[in-house]
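[Meeting: bench + compute handoff]

Bench side (C.D.) handed over the final construct sequence. Compute side (W.E.) agreed to return the predicted structure before the next meeting so the bench team could plan truncations. Sequence as handed over:
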Amino acid sequence: MSALFSLEKIMGRLTRLFGRESSGEIERELPFAVMIFTLMAASGITIYEGWKKLCSIDLLPKFQREAQDLVRKVEISGYDPLTVMYKKAEETRSKSYRDFLAGYVSAVKSGGSVVSFLRSKLRSIFEVRNAAAVQSVERLGTLVETYTVMLIVTLCIYILSVVMPSASFFELSAKGWTPTVSQPVIYLLIFFVTPLLSVILMLIAHVARKSNLMNIKRLYYKAAFPVIGTLIFFLLVMFTPQLRFITELLGLPGLVLICLVIVSLPPSIDYHKIARTNFSAEEGMPSFLRDITEARKTGLSSEKSIVHASKRKGYGKFSETLRLVRNQITWGISLKKVFINIKKKIQSWPVLVNFLVLAETIRIGGGSATALEILSEYSEKERDIEKNKRAMLKPYIILSLVWSILIALTTTVVLMTMYTLTQVTVPGLAEATYAMVQQLIEVFSAGIIFQCWMSGFFIGKVSEGSFAAGFKYSVMLAITAYVSLLLSKNFLGGLYAIIPS
């Protein structure tokens, strides 16, 4: 799993090198940056003060760098803020960011309402973001279809690899010779070429799909030690005669499955806990902000509105975080410190940004009902976008189960059918032929389980945006493939009456 983390870092460096991620980061952070500008403008704060505020917000790293550059040019070089913004509009690759900067400069120079412009631009940005989310799902769907085609091609090569050696082996066996399995090309295909293709498609998915979860690198580190330990154990079992009884007891597919489950199970359990807490927060945060807004409209203070909203039931795991918020505000702790404590429990980027914007809105502008209305409205839109995206990507999880079952069944059916037909047409096959069939099934079954395990990380990245989500899917797909292989082997073996002579 450390290899997956390294590949993720390599892809990040490559995309930054070619300037793609820079534009992508701006597009991702732009709605929240514009929201901050809009909320501050609604509270009577100038946009330049908004830029200065962004200098300290590390949750928006791209805009933090943009703000630091703008403030430096204004305060050190003596440029006018509008001039710097216009120059940035000419330099940026992002069309949305360019339209925002140029439009704001034009609105100020024409004497128009800055708040109206910002609200209109914010609405437009979220509409474009919603359309982009649908398009991104379509691109991810195309990527999954490409991955499926790759698996189909791989399956065809598997079948050819089964049929061609089997025919020659059966012919040798019919002549009384003892067949053996020694096909370096087959092993190279199963355990290197196919996984390499999966890794390439995973890297493409990494560019196309970003995760909302932050600081989950420890999950990759946690998997590193099991990877090393199971790899050493597997090599000892395979090449130490005294340990061969383990392979005979479990079978090669069973041994591979156990090693892969040991690698993935602990991180998958940790990821499940993290995802459960953070997805609940993403679902409940807009409702929480809406409750604060409605309470603020009744005349309650901002802090009392937060306390009132946090008492609502039905937030699931998010209720534990809100209870902490309520207690700290009741004890007189500042919202800034409350936010710092929330960051220790929540790792969802949109939730943390919304908390931060809420705290800054109250601290700077007193938390006016108008500003809170803007925040809650667009927080709900962001929630709906993410919710729809996950719903549209969920069918691909079922597709991954289907292809795991089909790959396992098809390979087993072809191999056993080939053996049965040869047994009928060429009588007197030696007992070694049965051992050869078993050996081929063992090798291909191990390769299929490993490939399905790799597919789990691809599906995790596509469906949830993080390779860490792949730990649970890799366990699920590997077990599915193993059970399918076991059932098909036993059922077809009994159906074809494949037993030693």
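W.E. noted at the follow-up: The two ends are 45 Å apart (CA to CA). C.D. will use this when planning the next construct.
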